[in-house]
Amino acid sequence: MSRRDEILDALIGILKDKGVQSDFTLSELAQHVDIAKSTIYEYFRTKEEILSDALLRVFKDGIESILMRTYEESKEFEELLKDEIRFMFDMAQQSGFVFEFIGPELRADLPSHLKGQFVERMQETNQHYEKLFRQILAKGIEQGVLKAEDLEIRGHLFAALIAGSITRFANVTQDYQEPIDLDNYVDAFYDLVVKLFN
């Protein structure tokens, strides 16, 4: 691993511990990598550049893991939906600070060169997930688990339910509240979706 990557990894670790909005010092960062503060300037011009590069890497890694998710025709509806919800909640639990990063407050503060990349990748990710969840819901209808009535309205409710649940789940993890059992959460979410569509 290059020294530049070590610096970025150290900063990502600091952000995970302290939160994306928190301040950090270059001395603190240098100490984490066990280098002199001046060495950081061999790889980055400013503190803001380090922060931008670290956040962009976190964002890209998160997006790539989402875009790798595919519809598996051979699975039953319940398994498909639970697998996808578990993946998203697990991602929120493991990297809750990613959700803080993509929140509107921080997005507003992004440098202009990052905003364009962010918007483009978020649109691509949203389209990917909309397609994936449409396929999963269609499987539920095909298997008779869900009814096909008012699909457009219920689809929007479903999307809102997912987005709200993930944000809440990430916030619980971030705030160090009593941990939520992921399996129980996924089972309850599945039961709610089945009720919503029936």
Structure summarized in a few sentences:
This protein is mostly helical and 198 residues long.
Tell me what the structure shows.
This protein is mostly helical and 198 residues long. The protein contains ten helices and no strands. The protein has two domains: 1-44, Arc Repressor Mutant, subunit A (Orthogonal Bundle); 55-196, Orthogonal Bundle (Tetracycline Repressor, domain 2). Helix 5 (77-94) runs antiparallel to helix 8 (112-142) and helix 5 (77-94) crosses helix 10.
Main β sheet profile:
none
Structural class based on helices, strands and sheet pairing: mainly alpha
Average pLDDT value? 80
CATH architectural designation of the largest domain? Orthogonal Bundle
Shape designation = elongated
Q: Termini distance?
A: 52 Å
Roughly how many Å is the radius of gyration? 20 Å
What CATH first level of the largest domain would be assigned?
Mainly Alpha
Q: How many DSSP E strands?
A: 0
Compressed to H and E, one letter per element, the order equals HHHHHHHHHH
Task: Please outline the helices and strands.
Elements: H1 3-18, H2 26-33, H3 37-40, H4 47-67, H5 77-94, H6 96-101, H7 104-109, H8 112-142, H9 151-174, H10 182-196
Helix pairs in contact: 1-2, 1-4, 4-8, 5-8, 5-9, 5-10
Search tags:
198 residues, mainly alpha, Tetracycline Repressor, domain 2, 0% strand
